[in-house]
Each structure stands twice: as structure tokens, then as C-alpha cells.
Design goal:
Structural class: alpha/beta
Bound molecules: 2-acetamido-2-deoxy-beta-D-glucopyranose
Number of strands: 15
Oligomer: single chain
CATH topology of the largest domain: Rossmann fold
CATH superfamily of the largest domain: Glycogen Phosphorylase B
Radius of gyration: 28 Å
CATH class of the largest domain: Alpha Beta
Largest sheet: 7 strands, parallel
Strand order of the largest sheet: 3-2-1-4-5-8-9
């Protein structure tokens, strides 16, 4: 008996690994995702350290991790704090009225790169802290793939096993580094508004955008924080990852070719059982009881409703007024609602909304959303029909990804000022039962997916901690040239041989005809 207990505790210990989750604080949704990863590993019995240097100070008071107790903060330098403020003011509000291709996103990407460079400098000035971290002998480090300061940190801590993760659904750059097929013919790029059915022109754009971006972006490399401070290229490190965790879900995202190294844990932050058991408080309960139908309207925490062009707000409010039997809960961040919604009784404005609790409530009819990936995952798992109005970044792709499942209607951000169009989408989502049925079907599939995202994360993280780097999962195709990878040489050879054979056959046939003493004159047959 004693022996069994002893053995059991030994087994427990032997399978408890030491994880470092590195997550600079620059975005609410990014940190939420990495905190969930940390907590999931903690809950599975592992020793997890959450290292979260501050970039945006507004978020630093927020407690992202729950069960993970070992949290390490690091103050930003003055320069880094200023760059963080720049993210905040990053003037995303222009995207209410302007296009958002990757090229409009370039100034933001530039600020990111500057902030990450300064973050690395801050790490370099806090080597005592890094020495303490090094003494903890981590088995594995998990971090966001495009957060470049992770690499000098890894190098300093001399952690061999790495698990890059992305909080977006699809990151072509990461796919490229690990040798995953990208297939631009039928898989829309991360920030594109295309679906999997693209026209010729769309396929051109979908194919050339990322390589162009790659060309104009600065080379991803870093200077080691250790003597002799050599320069190391990041893509060469990325390919050594044991696995990568992406925030996509095969039952939700486009069907596409992938490799075993890409572990898709999309939906990990949505704990359906917990959300369904959580009840809204009395205030929200009363609001949900006001009318037979309720629609939740939210554009997220980056695109603020208060910055929406006034004519759009006027059109939205006046359209909502035409549906007196519906309560509209609108996440709105200011007190100036009288300027566009005076006297409209069926709108409830609120600066803050308990989004997941509302989505989980059976009285909520539909969700009008900006299609941020967090919201898309939540609403998919909770099975509500959606009105999709993507604004910028990866939201267009997220919207198309969900719309495939037939539970959504879409409206362009440029049509938000048109009452007629708004009225149509409200009518469809409220009165056409097929949207609800399709959304519930998707939620049912997600609830019953063969392997749960949490289990995928824990099993693969443990496997990596135990076996380290996994060269067997590294496809050789990664080392091939463009010409051999796409079989252009083979296709050219087959084409030439076919041409040659055709020519020889033609010549022989010609000779034969010359030798044979028959004349091939057309013979007229009698037709009856
Ligand atoms: C977990 O990590 C902490 C901090 O490094 C360390 O003090 C503790 O001994 C570790 N526990 C196990 C079981 O590895
Ligand atoms: C709106 O008004 C409330 C109460 O008067 C106040 O507490 C809040 O700070 C105001 N919000 C804004 C954004 O002005
Ligand atoms: C959505 O509807 C189309 C057209 O009816 C259908 O072909 C497609 O299979 C449906 N998609 C899903 C995920 O049910």
C-alpha cells in the first residue's frame, strides 16, 4: 500500500515539468490566450512560470492568470512605455472608414518592431533577473511566435525546447519557417478578406502579398545577450521548435494541408461548461427579460463604438428603433448617446458587458460583432447566430471563416450608415431560423470534437518536455528549392519528353503514310 502511494507520487513528480511562458504585455487578447495556456498546464500538474514584462501599462493591474501562481513582472523603460502608449493611441479608429490591407497596417507593425527591440534592451539591462530565471532550469519555453525578444531570452536562458504559439488562426510566416504547406490557391492569407473560393485576381493577391511583406520587413535577427554577442537569425531558431500551437480549430477554420508539428488548439480559451454555468447578475437578468428578443452589439476593446462615424451611429440607432420588440445591448464607451439615440427606448448602452455570460444565455438571440478571433471562438462554441462586421487586421478572415458555417449574415463596415441594409440583416438574423440551427450545429460539433484543445495542448507540451527537439517532425521539404518543391523541374521534364515523343510519333506516322501505297481519299458512305 505504502509502496503504491510512494510509486504514485513518484510518477506524479516524474511527469511534472517546468514551463516558462513568456508573454510581454502588449495586447489584451494576446495575454488572455497565453494566460490560458499557462493555467491549463498548471491545472495539469506542472510547474509554470508566467513571465510578463509590461509594455502597455494600462493592462498591468489586470490579473490574467488564475491558477498559475508564479508570475514575474518587469517594468518598462521610459522609451518602452512611450511606445506602449503609441500602440494605444495607434489610431486604429481610422479603420472605421479606411481599408485595412497589410499595407495600411505597416505603421502599426513598425511600432511593434520598435517596441520589441526596446523590450530586448530592457531584458539586457536586467540580467540579474534573467540569471534567476536561468537557475530555474526550465524544460520548455512557450511564447508568441512574432514576439522577437523571446529569442534573445531563450538564448540567454539556454532553453533548448521551444513551443512557439500564435494567438491568431493562421500565420504564414510561421508556417513557412516550420515547412508547413501554405497553399495560397485555396487558403486565404491571415489578413485577407477572401474566402477559399478565389478568382484569378484574388489568387494573385493572396499569393504575392506575404512574400512582398517579407521583402520590405526588416530581417528578423537578434544580438545575443551573452558574450560574444553574436547575431542570430530567428527563422533558423523557429524551425527547431518541437511543436507550434496555433489558435485555429480544424472544425471551424478552412480545411487545409498541415503537418503534425502544427497543433491546433483554437478554442482553448472558451470553457463552455464554466460559461454555461455562470449566470448573469440581476441587472443583466432584468435587461434580458425586457423583450422577447435581444441582440448584443459589440465591436471589441480596440475599435471603440464611440469613434464610429456619427452617421453610422445615427443609422444604427434609427434602425434599431424600428424593431421595438427587440432589446439591443450596445457596448458603448461614452456618455454622448443622446447625440444619435435620443428617445430610442430599446437600446441599452453599456461601457462594459459580461460578453460570455450573455452569449451563453438562452435569451440572447444574436450577436453583432467585429469578428475578433476571441469573440468568434466564443460565439462559435456558444452557438449564437451572428451579424459579422469586420473592421481591420485578421477580422475579415475570421468573419469569412465563420460565415462558411451558414450561421451568419455579413455587413460591410462601409454599409453601416445605410438603414436599408441594416434593416435587412437584422430581419434575417432575427426571423430566419436557419441561422440559429446552423450555429447550434457548429457549437455541438465543437463541444464534441474528438480531442479537446486543452488535451492537445497538455499532451503535446508534455511530449516536448520529455523528448526535447523532434527532428523527425521537421519536413525535408523545408530545405528544398522553390523549383524542386513545386516540381517545376519534373513538370518541365515531363513536358519536354511528351513533346519529343509526340514529335517522333508524328515523324514516324508521316513516313508510314508516305511508304504505304494507299491514298486517303474521303469515301462517301450512303446514309439512310
Ligand atoms: C517549481 O518552480 C519553483 C520556482 O522555480 C521551484 O521553487 C520549485 O521547486 C519547483 N517545483 C517543482 C516540483 O519542480
Ligand atoms: C459617464 O457618466 C458617468 C456618471 O455620470 C460617469 O461616472 C462616467 O465617468 C462618465 N463616462 C464618461 C466616459 O464620460
Ligand atoms: C452551407 O450552405 C451551403 C449551401 O446550402 C452548403 O453547400 C454548405 O455545405 C453549408 N455549409 C455547412 C458548413 O453546413
Amino acid at each position: 500500500m505504502k509502496l503504491t502511494v510512494l510509486l504514485l507520487s513518484f510518477v506524479q513528480l516524474a511527469f511534472s515539468y517546468n514551463f516558462l511562458v513568456f508573454c510581454p504585455l502588449f495586447g489584451h487578447s494576446h495575454t488572455t490566450y497565453f494566460a490560458k495556456i499557462a493555467d491549463t498546464l498548471t491545472d495539469a500538474g506542472h510547474n509554470v512560470t508566467f513571465f510578463t514584462p509590461t509594455i502597455i501599462q494600462r493592462f498591468s493591474k489586470h490579473n490574467y492568470v488564475k491558477s498559475t501562481k508564479n508570475v514575474i513582472h518587469l517594468e518598462p523603460s521610459e522609451k518602452l512605455a512611450i511606445l506602449g502608449d503609441k500602440f494605444e493611441e495607434g489610431d486604429t479608429s481610422k479603420f472605421w472608414i479606411s481599408d485595412s490591407t497589410v499595407f495600411e497596417m505597416l505603421p502599426m507593425i513598425d511600432t511593434f518592431n520598435k517596441a520589441f527591440e526596446e523590450q530586448t534592451a530592457v531584458l539586457g539591462r536586467n540580467l540579474e533577473l534573467l540569471d534567476e530565471l536561468k537557475a530555474m532550469n526550465f524544460d520548455v519555453m512557450i511564447f508568441e511566435s512574432f514576439v522577437d525578444p523571446a529569442y534573445p531570452l531563450l538564448d540567454y536562458l539556454q532553453i533548448k525546447t521551444i513551443l512557439p504559439a500564435t494567438s491568431i488562426a493562421f500565420d504564414e510566416m510561421l508556417s513557412y519557417s516550420i515547412g508547413e504547406p501554405i497553399m495560397t490557391s485555396a487558403v486565404p492569407a491571415p489578413m485577407s478578406a477572401f474566402t477559399d473560393q478565389m478568382t484569378f485576381m484574388e489568387r494573385i493577391v493572396n499569393t504575392v502579398t506575404s512574400p512582398l511583406l517579407y521583402l520590405i520587413m526588416p530581417k528578423r535577427q537578434f544580438k545575443s545577450l551573452r558574450f560574444p554577442h553574436s547575431t542570430i537569425e530567428i527563422s533558423s531558431q523557429e524551425s527547431m521548435s518541437s511543436f507550434v500551437f496555433t489558435n485555429s480549430n480544424p472544425y471551424l477554420d478552412y480545411a487545409r494541408p498541415t503537418i503534425e508539428k502544427n497543433v491546433q488548439i483554437g478554442g482553448i480559451s472558451v470553457d463552455v461548461d464554466q460559461l454555461k454555468s455562470q449566470k448573469v447578475n440581476q441587472e443583466w437578468d432584468e435587461i434580458l427579460n425586457l423583450r422577447t428578443k435581444t441582440i448584443l452589439v459589440s465591436f471589441g476593446s480596440i475599435m471603440l463604438s464611440k469613434d464610429m462615424p456619427l452617421e453610422n451611429r445615427i443609422a444604427l440607432a434609427s434602425t434599431m428603433k424600428q424593431f421595438p420588440e427587440v432589446t439591443f445591448i450596445w457596448k458603448y464607451e461614452s456618455n454622448d448617446t443622446d447625440s444619435f439615440a435620443k428617445g430610442v427606448e430599446n437600446i441599452h448602452f453599456s461601457n462594459w458587458i459580461p460578453q460570455t455570460a450573455l452569449l451563453a444565455d438562452s435569451r440572447l438571440s444574436a450577436f453583432f460583432t467585429h469578428a475578433g478571433l476571441g469573440s468568434i471562438n466564443e460565439v462559435s462554441y456558444l452557438g449564437k447566430p451572428t451579424i459579422l462586421c469586420p473592421i481591420f487586421a485578421d477580422q475579415m478572415r475570421n468573419a469569412q471563416m465563420l460565415a462558411r458555417h451558414n450561421g451568419s449574415v455579413e455587413i460591410s463596415k462601409y454599409d453601416l450608415g445605410q438603414s436599408q441594409k441594416l434593416q435587412e440583416v437584422f430581419k434575417k438574423i432575427l426571423f430566419d431560423q436557419s441561422y440559429t440551427t446552423a450555429s447550434e450545429n457548429l457549437a455541438l460539433q465543437l463541444a464534441n470534437q474528438p480531442v479537446k484543445p486543452k488535451e492537445l495542448l497538455v499532451r503535446h507540451a508534455e511530449f516536448a518536455a520529455r523528448f526535447g527537439r523532434l527532428p523527425s517532425l521537421d519536413p525535408y521539404s523545408r530545405h528544398m528549392s522553390f523549383i524542386s518543391y513545386f516540381l517545376i523541374d519534373v513538370a518541365a521534364t515531363i513536358f519536354l519528353i511528351s513533346l519529343l515523343m509526340f514529335y517522333v510519333f508524328f515523324r514516324i506516322a508521316k513516313q508510314l503514310i508516305n511508304y504505304l501505297p494507299i491514298t486517303l481519299s474521303p469515301v462517301k458512305h450512303k446514309t439512310n
